[in-house]
Task: inverse folding
């Protein structure tokens, strides 16, 4: 089975721009979560989607948004980019709706803001 | 305030020894706790999950304990190998709030031959 695929792997943007990141979960997985990882804050939860509905949301500003499609693929969007948005953005999928599912992570998109 | 703390310093051990990593939490009541391994430039990889009613879980050379009274989990790697060198992250659920996992900062483990 193919793992979680994130595209692109690297991205460079400037302040004020917007960006869209893509995640393809493991086949059959219906839950997709997004995390931001920085050296200072570590791994922080952004949001989770299950069956195209946002099920949970972390403490990030409204500039961060996401969606999930009927085939479980997910995108996240960040508008009006700030320097502090530079981070590794990780997507994780899990099989079901239960809360104790192990998360299967992709290798992330490294976003750099100039 | 809510906190998850892992060994603040990197852990350096000799090959063949047992590595013990600590995860302490404050003001959470997790139903389960997970451990992940992360290599540089890669996403975390799931290792083990332990539930609040389980004291100990084993998988090959790995062992996890979970003490809800002490609010602590210990992660052991026995007969450690240089290939075990990585950052290890603990994560817990935040009172059954869907897929929201709260991660510790991680402990960097280095196993020297």
Result:
């Amino acid at each position: 089975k193919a793992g979680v695929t994130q595209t692109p792997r690297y991205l460079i943007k400037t302040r004020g721009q917007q960006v869209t990141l893509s995640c393809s979960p493991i086949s059959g997985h219906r839950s997709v979560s997004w995390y931001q990882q920085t050296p200072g804050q570590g791994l922080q939860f952004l949001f989770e989607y299950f069956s195209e509905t946002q099920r949970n949301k972390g403490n990030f500003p409204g500039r961060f948004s996401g969606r999930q499609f009927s085939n479980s693929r997910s995108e996240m969007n960040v508008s009006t980019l700030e320097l502090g948005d530079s981070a590794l953005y990780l997507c994780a999928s899990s099989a079901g709706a239960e809360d104790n599912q192990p998360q299967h992570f992709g290798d992330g998109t490294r976003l750099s803001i100039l | 305030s809510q906190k998850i703390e892992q060994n603040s310093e990197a852990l350096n051990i000799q090959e063949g020894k047992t590595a013990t990593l600590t995860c302490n939490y404050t003001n959470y009541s997790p139903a389960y706790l997970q451990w992940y391994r992360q290599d540089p430039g890669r996403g975390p990889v799931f290792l083990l999950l332990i539930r609040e009613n389980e004291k100990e879980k084993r998988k090959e050379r790995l062992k996890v304990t979970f003490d809800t009274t002490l609010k602590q989990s210990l992660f052991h790697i026995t007969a450690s190998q240089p290939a075990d060198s990585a950052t290890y992250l603990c994560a817990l659920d935040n009172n059954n709030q869907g897929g929201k996992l709260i991660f510790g900062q991680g402990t960097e483990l280095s196993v020297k031959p």
In short: Chain B has a mean pLDDT of 92. Chain B touches chain A through 26 residues (CB under 8 Å).
